Predict the 3D structure of the following.
Amino acid sequence: MASLTALLSEIRACTICAEHLPLGPRPVFQVHPSVRVLIAGQAPGRKVHESGVPFDDASGDRLRIWLRVSRETFYDARQVAILPMGFCFPGTGKSGDLPPRDDWPPGVPLPHPSPPNSIWLKRNPRFEEDLLPVLRAHVAKLLKNEG
């Protein structure tokens, strides 16, 4: 638990992307070591940035309806963890909020590595040619820094 507490404190204090964030850094997430459900999101929207509460907007209302979960249960970090790929609001684009920055790991979406996805991999060779080398280098760097 101490390492999780330290990690969460580090994330809350993060300013790495500050110069790229139109409203400044404000990591928004919730997590607890005993959590049973994880909602993995994209990035907080403007309303969520302002409130500091994950999914505190119309998308959160819809998500809670889909899950048939009360607001009270949803915002109990012991029951539901909410972790976005990008912890801060990335700004507004032409048709809504921007996605998380593509030059900022850790949020690298991967296809499922099961054999049935071989067809998808054949149709998308750039995944193995372009993305995997970058991902491997980043993972190697992170693992080297751990030991």
Notes: The longest strand covers residues 37-41. The beta strands are 37-41, 80-84, 92-93, 96-97. Residues 108-147 form one domain. The helical segments are 2-12, 46-51, 58-67, 71-74, 118-123, 125-146.
